[in-house]
Amino acid sequence: MLRQKNTFLLILALSLAACLPQGADLTSSLVSATQTPGPTSTPLPSRPEYNPGELVDYVAQTGDTLPALAARFNTTIHEIMDANPDIPADATSMPPGMPMKIPIYYLPFWGTTFQILPDSQFVNGPAAIGFDTGAFVAGHPGWLKDYRAYAADANRTGAEIVDIVAINYSISPRVLLAVLEYQTGALSQPVPPSGSYPLGEEDYTHAGLYMQLIWAANVLNNGYYGWRTGSLTNLEHLDGNIERPDPWQTAATVAFQYYYIQHYSLEDYTRAIGPGGLAHTYQALFGDPWEVDQPHIPVSLQQPELTFPFPAGDTWSFTGGPHTGWGSLLPWAALDFAPPAAVGGCVPTTELATAVANGVVVRSETGVVMLDLDGDGNENTGWDILYLHVATTGRVSVGRKLKVGDPVGYPSCEGGTATGTHIHIARKYNGEWIPVDSAISFNLDGWIAHIGAAPYQGTLTRGNQTITACDCSDAASHIKAGK
Predict the structure, then answer these.
(1) C-alpha closest to that of 363 among 381, 377, 383
(2) Does residue 92 sit in helix, strand or coil?
(3) CA 20 to 30 Å from 89, out of 163, 199, 310, 461?
């Protein structure tokens, strides 16, 4: 096993040495794909009808895991392991750039092989550090620079709205700006689109730019993490026809495919996801994303040791199994816990939520505390733990260094949507939400979380013990912190 792991890491080192990123060459002038034709390109390769179980070449991409690869290629983890004996049995994320052989079982209706964006540029991770949304928007003549609206409990500029959605959903602000420019000319056209639904989601609950961006972020994340985890393998067009994303695709590309298939005709969809569509707009705004791609999920990523978000020895209720980290769709990255005495509505509690690991508080705002575990003070890098529904009174302040078990604040219903007093916790690594029941298990004091049939259902298991989530706070949902 040691030899296998050493080979695994050596392949990683050799692969990354050959593809170190160059400096970004950001475009100073805007050439909008909504206004000008996109670049011409050579025909994209098509996939043959492979023989059942035929081994195909694949180069591991950042964040790839064996369960997801098995789902995409319509094969099994066992078959992939047999074809790649250097992969250790306990591997989680694959080494980006590692050559692999994968048994494939052909399915019809595969989509385009064109890749819009690398995953590292999609998430609000290391690649987004230093990007000034306000300055970028102010430097372009489009309507977004003069936009003002009430959003998130205050009057906001267009750039501030983009940043709020980018931070909360952990999607790069560059991605949101490119989507806005491609569909509305937000950075190039002085006149905004008419009506309340600039991105096309005509639902009164999503009227206005802020709510339209929230809808877009939810849909983009649903596509990204659906592909990342292997739960999304089919796309459905408006006419009911099925398309299967090319198994070699990036999660970011599938996110855009999933997003544009929601409202676009086949012709408009094909244009949007092709070389002359969103990819052209993004490159005109920010330069070639592939030149600055640097994998943000390392080989065999492991979760650091985490405790429950309440004091050791205390018993709380496991009120919410795996569900969305932020928003309303994927990823299922969060778990909920509540003091048993507080279950039954939005009632005050004197019991404190606590730090699951050592770290520094990098965000503290209505309902939210973000704990940065690597201590660099930057939410875009390393492991971060989101606490949601933290009461304003007693909430820990930004800059505080916490030790395991230190108070974070009181559970409440503040921030987001809640029907009862509780604490919601979720994990991120380098800006990417880490789904609960994935190759990188959500482990609290040795208890491993597993999904249920629907959001908020599910279990925690340790050895032969199982705790079942229930917002009823019955005895079967009670769990004691500590090993």
Answers:
(1) 377
(2) coil
(3) 461
- Determine contact, residues 432/446, Cβ cutoff 8 Å: no
Could you give the 3-state DSSP secondary structure of residue 338? strand
Q: In CATH terms, is domain 2-26+51-104 a member of 3.40.630.30?
A: no
Domain ranges (residues) in the chain = 2-26+51-104, 119-291, 315-480
Under CATH, which number does the domain 315-480 receive?
Answer: 2.70.70.10
Judge whether residue 30 has pLDDT over 60: no
- Count the neighbouring beta carbons within 10 Å of the beta carbon of residue 415: 18
Sequence-distant (6+) residues with CB within 8 A of 121 are 127, 172, 174, 175, 252, 289, 292, 293
pLDDT digits (tens, 9 = 90+) for 115-158: 999 999 999 999 999 999 999 999 999 999 999 999 999 999 99
Do 296 and 431 contact (CB within 8 A), yes or no?
yes
Tokens for 218?
């939810």
Looking at residue 297, what DSSP letter applies? S
Looking up tokens 């650091």 gives 304
Q: pLDDT tens-digit profile of 313-371?
A: 999 999 999 999 999 999 999 999 999 877 678 999 999 999 999 999 999 999 999 99
The burial class, CB within 10 Å (0-12 / 13-18 / 19+), for 462 is middle
Give dist(CA 352, CA 404) in Å, integer.
13
